[in-house]
Every structure is written in structure tokens, then in C-alpha cells.
Amino acid sequence: MRAELTIALDGHPVTLVDLSPNGAQVLSTLPLRPNQRVRLSLPQAVRPLRTGAIVVWASFEMPSEGARFRAGLVFSGVDLDALARFIEAHRRQES
């Protein structure tokens, strides 16, 4: 993924670190805990791609920028075709 892509998690901005058809890794200032159900909204031109997800793992980090949570999410009920288009559109350009 391109660096610093912001998405919405339960209506709050989070940083998308990695994305696959199965799930995502995010950085959040909101507390995230394993087994927590959340709603993801990925920005698209026409309308956001929305899906439910479950936090599979979460860790607390304290970098110099301030406290944050890093979490792994697994999707529930995502539109795989729309997700594939989103991933392709936001793929990091390798040189």
C-alpha cells in the first residue's frame, strides 16, 4: 500500500498499513482489542467501500509521535471485487 493512506474505522481516521482480500493492518489512536467488531470505510471516487471486521490482534506502541495501537483485522462480508479494485488503485509503485 502507499504510505500514509487514511481510512475510517468506526468513523475515526486511522492509517492503513497493509491490505489483502482477507484483512488489514491499521495504526490507530483509538484503543483496539482482540475480538472487537469494527466497521471499516475505504475511500473511493463514487462511494466508500464499507465492510465489517474483527480485530484479531492488537498491540500498544509508544513512538515519539505519541501513543497508538497497531491492529490486525479480518474482514466479514467484504465485496471482494470492489476490494481488489481498491487494492490495485492504491498499490505502491515499485521502481
Give an overview of the whole structure.
A 6-stranded antiparallel beta barrel has the order 1-2-3-6-5-4. It contains 1 helix and 6 strands, in the order E-E-E-E-E-E-H. It has one domain: predicted glycosyltransferase like domains (Thrombin, subunit H). It starts with a strand and ends in a 6-residue tail after the last helix. It has 95 residues and is mainly beta. The radius of gyration is 13 Å and the shape is globular.
- List the total number of helices: 1
| CATH architecture descriptor text | Beta Barrel
Structural class: mainly beta
Major β-sheet strand ordering: 1-2-3-6-5-4
Q: How would you classify the quaternary structure?
A: single chain
Distance between the termini: 14 Å
Strand content: over 45%
Order of helices and strands: EEEEEEH
Global mean pLDDT: 90
Helix content: 10-25%
Radius of gyration computed on alpha carbons: 13 Å
Unreliably modeled segments: none
Task: Please name the CATH topology.
Answer: Thrombin, subunit H
The CATH C-level name is Mainly Beta
* Total E-strand runs: 6
How many domain regions? 1
What is the name of the CATH superfamily? predicted glycosyltransferase like domains
Shape: globular
Largest sheet: 6 strands, antiparallel, barrel
